[in-house]
Amino acid sequence: MLGGPRTDHTSWTRRVAAAGSLAAVLAIVIAIAASAAINTRLVSRNSNGVSANGSSQTSLDGDISGNGRFVVFDSNATNLFGGSGTYFLTYLRDIRTGKTMLMSKDNNGEPATGAAVLGGISADGNVVTFEGSGTGLPGADPDNTEAWIRDVSAGVTKLISRANNGDPADGGDSVEPSLSANGRFAVFVSEVTNLPSGGTHAAIPRIYVRDVKLGHTTLVSRTNDGSPAYGFMCGRSISADGSASYSARTIRTSRERTGTTTSTSATSTVAARR
Fold first, then answer.
1. What is the pLDDT of residue 221?
2. Alpha-carbon dihedral angle through residues 199, 204, 206, 212, given to the nearest 10 degrees
3. H helices of the chain, where?
4. What is the pTM of this model?
5. pLDDT digit string, tens, across residues 153-202
6. Where do the domains of the chain lie, and which CATH numbers do they carry?
7. Buried b / exposed e across 53-81, counting CB within 10 Å, b at 16+?
8. Closest CA to 90 of 48, 124, 137, 123
């Protein structure tokens, strides 16, 4: 499994990327004004201005909107709405209004009752993505990690780790969600079997892009003849228009493992696909 449902904050993504370099207790934002003055503001606080009374952390993948107004973080604080003191939930802080809003909640406004940790934010701050067990969220799977977006203006939470027939991703974890600038496209890593070209070997992660507007999931870690790429996917990113790139090691180009494979090894293969 890539990570499994998170009840604490040791996600697979951050163990690899941070490797102990981040041990944040408070989330802060540093603003540099035109006058070159540096202003540091605490963002891990509730809407009354009281500091979060638990651990809070931001993401390495992008946690601030393009204009710097919105910052996302996750926290297990009990004085933030929905906070449990155990699992982490995702929050959006509006620096201008001083309002902190829970993102990892269902479409009735109820908080997730399982971990749902930050993935990223769109450029305008209107869409936030997160991953976790997310108990109570649309399509949540108690046995695997799923990925969601929250559309703030629409007040809607949508599952993005899902097949094109609408079924939730099944048989493995879906992690590392990240958004295009406009929030329409989300890229994520998954090892499940029921997404397009999903394999029968759950140990092989693949890179997918979900078009939230059209409700379509596309495999992007594939060769030019359409065959799934096999190997350890060690990075992924998405452009403003939804083009995705990824890096991989030891790519196998056979269509499925059937006992024998023809493989092509590459130490640091980087590919891009839309």
1. 80
2. 70
3. 12-18
4. 0.79
5. 999 999 999 999 999 999 889 999 999 999 999 999 998 889 988 765 55
6. 12-273 (2.130.10)
7. bbbbbbbebbbbbeeeebbbbbbbbeebe
8. 137
